[in-house]
Amino acid sequence: MNAVYLAQDPTLADFGKDPWWLVLIKIVFAFVFGLLATLLGVWFERRVVGYMQVRPGPNQIGPFGLLQTLADGLKMAFKEDILPKAADKVVYFFAPAVSVICAVTALSVIPFGPMVSIFGHRTPLQVTDVSVAVLVVLACSSMAVYGIVLGGWASGSTYPLLGGLRSSAQMISYEVALGLSIVAVFMTAGTMSTSGIVAAQAHGSQLNVFGLEFSAPGWYAILLMPSFIIFFIATVGETNRAPFDLPEAESELVAGFMTEYSSLKFALFMLSEYVAMVTMSAFTVTLFLGGWRAPAPITTFWEGANSGWWPMLWFFGKVVLLVFVFVWLRGTLPRLRYDQFMRLGWKALLPINLVWILVLAWLRSIEDWDSRGRLTGIGVLAGVLLLAVLLWPSRKPERKLTPQEQVDKRPHGSFPVPPMDLQVPPSPRTKRVVAEREPANIGAGPDSKEV
Predict the structure, then answer these.
(1) How far apart are CA 391 and CA 379, in angstroms?
(2) 3-class SS shares of the chain: helix, strand, coil, % to 5
(3) Where are the alpha helices (DSSP H) in 190-262?
(4) Comparing C-alpha atoms, which of 229, 236, 222 is closest to residue 332?
(5) How far apart (Å, rounded) are the C-alpha atoms in residues 167 and 257?
(6) Would you say 127 and 30 are in contact if contact means Cβ atoms under 8 Å apart?
(7) How much is the average pLDDT of 290-302?
(8) How far apart are CA 39 and CA 80, in angstroms?
(9) What is the spatial distance between Cα 231 and Cα 239, in angstroms, rounded to a whole number?
(10) Please, are residues 208 and 385 in contact by the beta-carbon 8 Å criterion?
C-alpha cells in the first residue's frame, strides 16, 4: 500500500527548498526540544515515581519543583572534574559527546507537524527528510552505543568496562528485533520516509465484529500490533532503561559505564540517556501512532485538527504518553537478570518477529492488500496472542516446602540446625536459679509479693 498524501502532508519534493535561516531555525528548534525534553523529563520521572512510591518528589525549587533539574545541572557543572590516572584521556573526553550528538541528530528526520507557513514561507515542520529516513534513526541509535562502550573502556576501570561490554551485547541483541519490527512498517507503508509513513496512517478502517461496525484508526500500532509490542520492548532495551538497565546496574556495577565520570561529562551521559528516550518515543509515535495526526475521536468533530500548528500538540501529547510508559516501567518492574534479558531478546522476540513477518507477507500475497479492516483484525488478534505468550508463566511455581521438609531434605551429616519451633532448652544455670527461688514462694498466696 503506497502512502496517500493529503494537502497538508509534506512530500520529499517539499524539502531542500527552504532558505538557510529557516533551516537554522528548525535545527535550533530540534536541539532546544531535546534539551527541554531532558529537563522536563527528569522532573517528570521523579514526580511520577514519587507519586507511585507515595512520596512528594521534587517540590521545593520553583513552582511544583520545575527548577529542580536546572539546579541539579548547575550543581553538576560546578563539581570537580576528576580524571582517572589509567584513563585514555582523548577517548575518555569525547565518549559522552558521541552519545549526545547521535541522540540529538536522530531528531532531524522526525516530523513534528504538517506543512505550515513561517514568515511567509510554506515549509514542513521537519528539519529534513530522505527516502531512507528511518535508517538514519537506526544508524544514530546504533552509533550512540559507541559513546557508552568507549566511555567504559577508556575509564581504565573494571566496572565501567563490564558496563560497556553489557551495552554492546544489549545493542546487538535488541537491534535485530528492532529492525525486524520496522520491516513490517515498510511492507505496509511502501516507503522508508518518515513523512511518508505518517501519511500512510491517515485513513482508518472499518471493522465488522459479530455484526457490529467499528471505525478503527489507521495507526500501525493497531494494524501491526505484534510489531508495535516488540518494537517498544526493543526500544526500552536499546535505551538502557529499567528493567533493562544492565549497563549501569548500581547493585552490581556501582554505576556501570559512567562510574568514573563526574561533573559535566557525567551530565552529558545523563543528557544522552533522556534525549535518546524522548527521540525513540518520537520515533515510535511516527512509525506506529500516526505521527502528528490527531486521534480519531478528535477528527470526527473537528476537521481542522490536522492542519496548522495544532498537530504539534497531538505529537507532543503522544510523546509524553510514551515517556510516561518508560517511567511506569521503571517504577513497577524489577531489573532482569542478564541471562533472562538475553533469553528474551534471542529466544522470544526474534523468532516471534520472524514468524509475524512471514505471516504478513503471506497475507499480502493472498488477500486484497487494500482491505485494512481484515489486516487490523488479524493484527489485533496476533498482538493479543503475543502478549499472552510473553506474559504467560513459563513453569508452574514450585510448592513451598515446610521448615521440617527443608530439614529432612538436607543430606545426612550436614551442619546441624536449630529446632524448628525456636524453643531453645533452658541452660543448667537457669534451672539452678529457678530451683533456688522456688522455696521462698512456698505457701504464698496468689497476690503475695516476695520480700
Answers:
(1) 18
(2) 65, 5, 35
(3) 194-200, 220-223, 225-238, 250-253
(4) 236
(5) 9
(6) yes
(7) 83
(8) 22
(9) 12
(10) no
Residue 205: beta bridge partners? 216
Residue positions counted in the chain:
451
Place of cell 475521536: 297
Burial class (CB in 10 A: 0-12, 13-18, 19+), 379: buried
Instruction: Give the range among 7-16, 74-83, 425-434 with minimum mean pLDDT.
Output: 425-434
Q: Is 38 exposed, middle or buried (0-12, 13-18, 19+ CB in 10 A)?
A: buried
- b vs e for 339-372, b when ≥16 Cβ sit within 10 Å of the residue's Cβ? eebbebbeebbbebbeebbeebeebeeeeeeeeb
Least confident of 192-196, 262-266, 273-277: 262-266
Joined grid coordinates for residue 380: 489485533
| Alpha carbon distance 398, 152 (integer Å) | 40
Q: What are phi and psi of 239, to 5 degrees?
A: -90, 5
Please report, for residues 75, 104, 255, 381, 447, the alpha-carbon distance to residue 268 in angstroms, rounded to integers and kept in the order given: 13, 12, 15, 43, 77
Show the cell assigned to 349.
522476540
Which three cell numbers mark 348?
Answer: 522470544
Between helix 263-288 and helix 68-77 the angle, nearest 10°, is 140
In Å, how far from its chain's centre is CA 176?
17
Query: What Å distances lie between residue 315 and 34, 310, 343, 402, 439, CA to CA?
Result: 14, 9, 34, 56, 88
Asked whether the predicted pLDDT for residue 374 surpasses 80, the reply is no
37 near 282, Cβ under 8 Å? no
Query: Distance between CA atoms of 283 and 234, rounded to whole angstroms?
Result: 13
End-to-end CA distance of the chain: 101
d(CA 211, CA 190): 32
Q: Which of 249, 324, 241, 234 is nearest to 287 (CA)?
A: 234
Cell of 403: 521448615
Cell numbers standing for residue 186: 515498510
Q: Check if the beta carbon of residue 313 is closer than 8 Å to that of residue 298.
A: no
